[in-house]
Specification:
Length: 299
């Protein structure tokens, strides 16, 4: 049996899978806001609760909102800031009395969709998160690619490729730079762009809904978004050449992306043919916690 933990800013989700990947148990608890030590205790308590209920001992994989620094072994780049600078993996192993495996939540998403999801059987998979932020994870022949700095797949903090004059210098990013892909392709970025161009203060969901209802301004905003996404993914295709790109996060529910973006990226990819497939996730919001469980692989 394997247990996956998805450690989010507002909730912690646990999923237990059998050796074939069938779901045995799932439940959530609220993340202790800003309290690192209580977060450790909550995770340990959830694992004990699951094992007691299922009368079995499990491997434990953790999907985190940041990454472990190879330099210090401490967490970095977490939007749940109480985790930053903390030895999360070591503290969890002490609390649980066993080894755990840990990876970024976007890596877990990509792994889940590779093992038994939309990209099942694919050799190289790029998993994309399009939500309040923009992240990514890479799986190569069934293994997560972490990278020398534990930042493989973090495409969101690269500049938007081939920006037009109207896109320069681009929106400010919390990372300290301007014009990052995340600033354009996140949900807040989509809303901010529409407000800047057309003056309508709408959420990303409202823009999509209004575009479907025939609003020409909102449709133009989505068309522009598709082109920016195509440019950005083309850069990843030129670099990584994946078999499949799977979209996750709230914006992955926009059906227009799967029809329009592959038509647009042809002009930006350095190839006479683009065989990369763009796919919606099979497991949706469950992919992160499933991927955390699959960090231990098949047995």
């Amino acid at each position: 049996m394997r247990i996956g933990i998805d450690l989010g800013g507002t909730k912690i989700e646990l999923l237990a899978l059998d050796t074939d990947g069938a779901e045995l148990l799932r439940f959530r608890k609220r993340t202790p806001a800003g309290d690192y030590h209580q977060t450790i205790l909550t995770i340990a308590d959830m694992v004990r609760q699951a094992e007691n209920q299922l009368a079995a001992t499990a491997t434990v994989g953790i999907g985190t909102p940041g990454a472990e620094s190879r330099l210090t072994g401490l967490m970095k780049n977490c939007n749940s800031t109480c985790l930053n600078g903390r030895p999360l993996k070591n503290d969890l192993e002490q609390a649980l009395g066993r080894q755990v495996r840990m990876s970024n939540d976007a890596n877990c998403f990509a792994l889940s969709e590779t093992v038994d999801g939309a990209a099942k059987g694919a050799g190289i998979v790029f998993g994309v998160i399009l939500g309040t932020g923009v992240g990514g994870g890479i799986v190569v022949h069934g293994s997560v690619l972490e990278g020398a700095n534990h930042i493989a797949g973090e495409w969101g903090h690269n500049p938007l490729p081939s920006p037009g004059m109207e896109e320069m210098p681009g929106p400010d990013c919390y990372c300290g730079r301007s014009g990052c892909i995340e600033g354009w392709l996140s949900g807040p970025g989509l809303s901010a762009d529409h407000l800047h161009v057309f003056g309508g203060d709408f959420s990303a969901e409202q823009i999509v809904q209004r575009a479907q209802e025939g609003d020409p301004d909102c449709r133009q905003t989505l068309d522009t978004y598709c082109d920016r996404l195509a440019r950005s993914l083309a850069g990843m295709i030129n670099t990584l050449d994946p078999d499949v790109i799977v979209l996750g996060g709230g914006l992955s529910n926009i059906d227009l992306l799967y029809a329009q973006v592959p038509q647009l990226w042809d002009q930006y990819v350095f190839s006479d043919e683009v065989r990369t497939r763009l796919m919606p996730p099979r497991h949706g919001d469950s992919s992160g916690v499933r991927g955390a469980a699959w960090l231990w692989g098949r047995k």
